[in-house]
Amino acid sequence: MNDVNDSFGTDAPVYVISVAAELAGMHPQTLRQYDRLGIVSPGRASGRGRRYSMRDVQTLRQVQRLSQDEGVNLAGIKRILELEHEVEQLREQVFHLANELEAARRAVTRRGRPAGPEGGAGVRGELVRRTRLTIFNTAEPGNPDEPRDGRPRAEGSGRGGYGPDVPGQGGPGNGGFGQGGPGRTEDEQD
Questions:
Q1: Closest CA to 40 of 92, 24, 3, 88
Q2: Is 159 left (phi over 0), alpha (psi -120 to 50) or beta?
Q3: Fewer Cβ atoms within 10 A, N terminus or C terminus of the chain?
Q4: Is residue 66 part of a domain?
Q5: Which residues of 31-59 are buried (b: 16+ CB within 10 A; e: fewer)?
Q6: Three-class DSSP category at 121
Q7: Rounded to an integer, what distance in angstroms lies between the CA atom of residue 66 and that of residue 78?
Q8: Is 80 within a domain?
Q9: What is the number of domains present in the chain?
Q10: CATH classification of the domain holding 72
Q11: Tens digit of pLDDT for each residue in 29-55?
Q12: Range of the structural domain that residue 50 is part of
């Protein structure tokens, strides 16, 4: 039996329902019920017949053990299987993230010690994130009344601001960007 399993793999849906039921020590009707409840959902053949994998058979054995030995009802068994599947996925994700982190640490180590803020050496193994930002000019060429970001200016706001009601960005004395000359800095304001 293991020779067949080894040649196809544990996830290959190769067993018809009668063989899977025999391997799991159950009645075929029980397997149909588990399929309807979503506890163990086998693959389907072209004629819509159920095809169980060795992993499905192992899950069926686990369902039987939980039901008979532990006294867990079918709803509880379904939840246990869902949580085990979720844990398996999370472990796989942690594995991949740990590999990525290790690769990033090796890349930083290969580059040598990054320079610190005062020109000295930084912390070895420090990961530096760089972000690229692209800004597109959406204003039509030669339109001085429209700012570079495409938003229309408010009346009387000058070339740099968006209106006199916005502190620090426009209007006379509000921030130095409008027509009114130098504005106050944030520290000078009340």
A1: 24
A2: alpha
A3: C
A4: yes
A5: beebbeeebbebeeeeeeebbbbbebbeb
A6: strand
A7: 10
A8: yes
A9: 1
A10: 1.10.1660.10
A11: 999 999 999 999 999 888 888 999 999
A12: 13-110
